[in-house]
């Protein structure tokens, strides 16, 4: 039997605008598009070889030739930019990370090949020493402490070698103090004034990087944690100070990392600085989605699009996500 209701109840019905797909589209406040996506990729030595990352189902490390093909395809789907990470063999790791700025290292060869194969796809390059140090830290380690200023000098050499190879964006992910200004000056002094600097400005000491460290073969080497340089997850005011410094030193874009647990930080950064603001939907966040989907506990496609839309809502201009190509395909179907 229908329940009788008062005639006047209710006048305002928020559900009206949800009643049809077309109204829902019309009143949507935020739109995720392929233009918002940056695809992180892993490059390995060799030829015609792909190597799955076990803790990141769907992600493969690729040799330069196969990576070029994959990036051409991503570009054809509309993905504007890739983020490049090298997998460095233990023979190339050292205390001083000298391999990181060798002009012909794997990273720099990959940059040259990608810019030749897919010139219209942006190449964002991680600037950090952790793939190259024998202890897995993002800097020079002495007396149990990561040395800030020596590390910054090596980062500047690394960024310059990437720019020389054709990098469009250099992205320091190390959290040393003062590196943005030093890198900006080094690039400008060498004719690279159009190379952009994307700062990993608010990067937290997070448990969600675990699968990435598997992928780049740095996790097994890492002694201790990164808490003396990456931020304490308890802090947000400090994130604003980090971002302010990096902008003042010349960053063109700023990033918050990880993503989902830090949406509040993204929102505060966007509101405070109105800068191009990126978030990194990191390896552990991606792995959670995949693991739950493999177990049949959630729908990967739907959860991915909802997640990325959440980043837009929080104020992101672009999102680094291992699901970029998946999302690009899904957005085409909509
Ligand atoms: C290294 C770097 C890390 C990530 C990007 N660059 C790992 C770390 O800081 O230990 C993590 C990315 C991810 O988890 O997807 N400087």
UniProtKB/TrEMBL annotation:
Binding-site positions, Mg(2+): 242
Enzyme Commission (EC) number: 4.2.1.24
Catalytic activity: 2 5-aminolevulinate = porphobilinogen + 2 H2O + H(+)
PROSITE patterns: D_ALA_DEHYDRATASE
Pfam families, per the entry: ALAD
InterPro entries linked to this entry: ALAD (IPR001731), ALAD_AS (IPR030656), Aldolase_TIM (IPR013785)
Domain of life where this protein originates: Bacteria
Active site residues according to the UniProt entry: 203, 257
UniProt entry keywords in alphabetical sequence: Heme biosynthesis, Lyase, Magnesium, Metal-binding, Porphyrin biosynthesis
SMART domains for this protein: ALAD
One GO cellular component, as annotated: cytosol
Pathway(s) the chain acts in: Porphyrin-containing compound metabolism; protoporphyrin-IX biosynthesis; coproporphyrinogen-III from 5-aminolevulinate: step 1/4
Top-level EC class: lyase
A GO term, aspect molecular function: porphobilinogen synthase activity
A GO biological process held by the record: protoporphyrinogen IX biosynthetic process
Assembly behavior: Homooctamer.
Family to which the UniProt record says this protein belongs: Belongs to the ALAD family.
Classification via NCBIfam families: PRK09283.1
Protein name in the entry: Delta-aminolevulinic acid dehydratase
Organism of this sequence: Azospirillum cavernae
Lineage: Bacteria, Pseudomonadati, Pseudomonadota, Alphaproteobacteria, Rhodospirillales
């Amino acid at each position: 039997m229908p329940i009788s209701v008062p005639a006047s109840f209710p006048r305002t019905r928020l559900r009206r605008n949800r009643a049809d797909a077309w109204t829902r589209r019309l009143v949507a406040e935020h739109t995720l598009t392929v233009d918002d996506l940056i695809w992180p990729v892993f490059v390995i030595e060799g030829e015609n070889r792909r190597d799955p990352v076990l803790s990141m189902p769907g992600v493969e490390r690729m040799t330069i030739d196969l990576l070029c093909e994959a990036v051409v395809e991503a570009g054809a789907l509309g993905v504007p930019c890739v983020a490049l990470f090298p997998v460095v063999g233990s023979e190339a790791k050292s205390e001083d990370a000298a391999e990181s700025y060798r002009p012909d290292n794997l990273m720099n060869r990959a940059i040259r090949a990608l810019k030749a194969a897919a010139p219209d796809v942006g190449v964002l390059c991680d600037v950090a020493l952790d793939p190259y140090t024998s202890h897995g830290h993002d800097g020079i380690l002495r007396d149990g402490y990561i040395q800030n200023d020596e590390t910054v000098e090596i980062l500047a050499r690394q960024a310059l070698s990437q720019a020389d190879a054709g990098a469009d964006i250099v992205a320091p992910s190390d959290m040393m103090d003062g590196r943005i200004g030093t890198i900006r000056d080094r690039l400008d002094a060498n004719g690279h004034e159009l190379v952009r600097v994307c700062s990993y400005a608010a990067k937290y000491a997070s448990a969600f990087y675990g699968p990435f460290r598997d992928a780049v073969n740095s996790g097994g080497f890492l002694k201790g944690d990164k808490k003396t340089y990456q931020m304490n997850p308890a802090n947000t005011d400090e994130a604003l100070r980090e971002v302010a410094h990096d902008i003042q030193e010349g960053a063109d874009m700023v990033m918050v990392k990880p993503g989902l647990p830090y949406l509040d930080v993204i929102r505060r950064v966007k509101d405070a600085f109105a800068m191009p603001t990126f978030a990194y939907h990191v390896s552990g966040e991606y792995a959670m989605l995949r693991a739950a989907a493999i177990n049949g506990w959630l729908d990967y496609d739907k959860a991915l699009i909802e997640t990325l839309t959440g980043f837009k809502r929080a104020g992101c201009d672009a999102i680094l996500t291992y699901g970029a190509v998946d999302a690009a395909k899904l957005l085409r179907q909509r």
